[in-house]
Amino acid sequence: MLADFAPTLSIYSPAIAIFLSVPAISALKSACFLAEVGCGNGVGAFSAAIPSPGGAAFDAMADREAEPLATFASAAAIAAEVLTMATYPRDRAEFLRWAEAHIDVFTAQAASIGLTAAQATAFKNQVGALRSRTTAQQAARDAAKSATEAARDADSATRELTSDLVRSIRAFATNNNNPNVYVLAQIPAPNPGAPVPPPGQPTDFKVELNSDGSITLKWKAKHPEGSDRVVYFVQRKLINETAFRLIGGSGEKSYQDDTLPVGIDGATYIITAQRGNVQGQPSRQLTVTFGSGGPGAMRFGFAENNAVSKKAA
């Protein structure tokens, strides 16, 4: 039995750099040695030829009885794995590409390379099945990622809509002085001992110059929970005036001023948020300046009081 493996070892041992790594040669030798032990042919023949890191372990195995046929089958499997492990890639994607590239080779050259037509066909079908399963797996991963993002977007949109609905319900209950609205809506009524604070202060202004010479003011404002139906009142003072006067209001966080006199060099604004009879803190003064030609000029700037000036096109 050992004589069947010895030629194999003698061929591959001198060719380590070409075919197998040192651990692979050691594994092959160990497999052959294990077969030798199992078949009862004695020990030490291979160990003396090529020292093995597992030599001590196999020496211990030699003292135990083993069924020759089972031991030989295990040894043959190990030897086969050693001889083929460097033939094709272990990584699935690389292995799949390698297998697909060999379908035509194995099919066309079956008889010349020791394969039957049935083996070549079975290989082709199995490689096709692996490609299908791999493609389905990737599609499932992509679908799961897409579904996760869609669920996250839906959650955000639903929460925002729910917040708007709850504010509307509470405003309706307050305006009609009807606490039963909360019972019907099955939401908790606000704590009567905790009045809603005033609306927030408008900040972070942006100014846009429109083609018709008007300007649009935009801002941000964060209000406490329960602040419904907030209105923003806009006061303005032209550069040649001494006092502010109310020029309009808006239910949105923006206001278009289309009443600026032609040729004016600038104007200052104050925006105040109000909910019912409760006013919030007025904004800082926002000063808008124009180049020559008044509000229709192509260049202008704006700045909040105590803030760094900004340029707008």
Describe the structure.
The chain has 313 residues and is an alpha+beta fold. Among the domains are: 2-87; 203-312, Immunoglobulin-like (Sandwich). 44% of the residues lie in helices and 18% in strands. The chain is built from eight helices and ten strands. Strands 3, 4, 6, 7, 8, 9 and 10 form a seven-stranded antiparallel sheet that branches. A three-stranded antiparallel sheet has the order 1-2-5, with no helix packed on it. Helix 1 (2-12) packs antiparallel against helix 2 (22-38). The chain is elongated.
The CATH topology of the domain at 203-312, please?
Answer: Immunoglobulin-like
CATH superfamily of the domain at 203-312: Immunoglobulins
Write down the secondary-structure element order: HHHHHHHHEEEEEEEEEE
The appropriate CATH architecture of the domain at 203-312 is Sandwich
Cα-to-Cα separation, first versus last residue = 92 Å
Rg for CA atoms: 42 Å
Structural class: alpha+beta
Q: Tell me how many strands there are.
A: 10
CATH class categorisation of the domain at 203-312: Mainly Beta
Helix content: 40-55%
Q: Assign an overall shape.
A: elongated
Low-pLDDT segments, ≥5 res = 11-24, 33-50, 307-313
Largest sheet: 7 strands, antiparallel
Rounded mean pLDDT is: 77
Strand content: 15-25%
How many H/I helices? 8
Describe the structure concisely for a colleague.
The protein has helices at residues 2-12, 22-38, 45-49, 55-61, 68-84, 92-108, 117-175, 180-185; strands at 203-209, 215-220, 231-238, 245-250, 254-257, 266-275, 278-279, 286-290, 300-304, 310-312. The chain is of the alpha+beta class and 313 residues long. Strands 3, 4, 6, 7, 8, 9 and 10 form a seven-stranded antiparallel beta sheet that branches.
